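Protocol step 4 of 5: obtain the predicted structure for the target chain.
Materials: sequence only (see below). No template structures provided, no constraints applied. The aim of this step is simply to have a reference model before the mutagenesis design in step 5. Sequence pasted as it appears in the construct record:
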Amino acid sequence: MNMFVVIQQMLVLLVMMLIGYIVFRIKWLDGNACSRMSKIVVNVLNPCLMVNGVLGKEAKLEGSMLFQTLVLVVIYFAVLILISGPVASALRVRKEHFNLYRLMMIFSNVGFMGIPVISSIYGKEAILLIAFYNLGYNLLLYTYGIYLVGKGCLATEETEAGKGLSGESGKAAGKGMDWKKLLNPGVASCVAAIVIFASGATMPESVCTFFDYVGNAAVPLSMILIGASVAQGGRKEFFLDKKMYAFMAVKMLAIPIAAALLVRLLPWPAMVEGVFILMLAMPVGSIVVMLATESGNDAIECTKGSILTTLVSVLTIPLVSVFLQF
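Step 4 output (structure tokens):
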């Protein structure tokens, strides 16, 4: 596999996104339908795709690769958390946006977009590796992520003299972690995939067929919904924010390319390193928008980041792939 294969795969996904954009613009889909379909993708299709990745004989990974992936998952989140503050400071973002930029730096779209992109490039075997990233993502999102939006609300309250609902929402967000949110189909499917692989359990053919059919629907439908979200939320003024372009240059090019140059020094399999690098190149996750909305922060800033990084990723991911070892 080479860069041209990655470009071809991204073009396929781009066409799927374009279909979503068009069907929303011609009103075959509306915001309510997209919201309901997103729940199906997140809670049914993506979990099935995750489990499908370890069923059958195609998913053959050595135990050392899983250990290497665990190490890189820890490095992935540790590095993003550590540099998110300095990057936001360097960009001189407004005080009430500081933690929102940190959220956008840390919580990329590792599931909704990461799964279809990486599985289309590396195949079914990469699904198990993605499961570890998704587990770490969920654990941090409902702990550290909620902590950050709570602090963001306090900053908004200070700058706006307590006006609006942000102060109350900030207190609600900062009271504590809702551990019940970790009990969701996404986390369950990640754990199930790891257990199935570790135990070597075999499933009846009918079960494998079910997960194959349902899981494969996740890729086109998720990309169609991403295209619809661009049509739904895009605004002309979004494209005039210089700070956001600087943020995208750091997040989607500088960091993954630097990571690619460093990890190639490790004598580890190309797929393990490639998944790590591509995860760093993923756009801002839409869950950040939801967290900002629920906590009373400026959701428009996060919406802008999610939409622009998703659009730009069609170009940046192939550019980053130049530095991958296939």
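Step 4 remarks: Residues 159-174 have pLDDT under 50 and may be disordered. DSSP finds 14 helices and no strands in the chain.
Proceed to step 5.
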